[in-house]
Predict the structure.
Amino acid sequence: MSQLEIYAPYDGLLVYEKNFRGDKPSVGQTVFPGSTIAKIPNLEKMQAKVYVLDKDAIGLKEGQQVELHLEALPEHVLMAL
């Protein structure tokens, strides 16, 4: 383990990948060859899927501008079409 180095193609946040049971990797866990342990998402190509409840969608039309407020960055407001 002391000789292990990981090189990333870009800066970012390391996100652990969940297995089929929904568990993230843990210390001492067996990992099989080819298994994905974690990913570094490319933040320049990030997309969001947003769902709106039917009762909250009254008056929404295609092409309207929206504001996105993320819990991780409450001081930032993201504008999108």
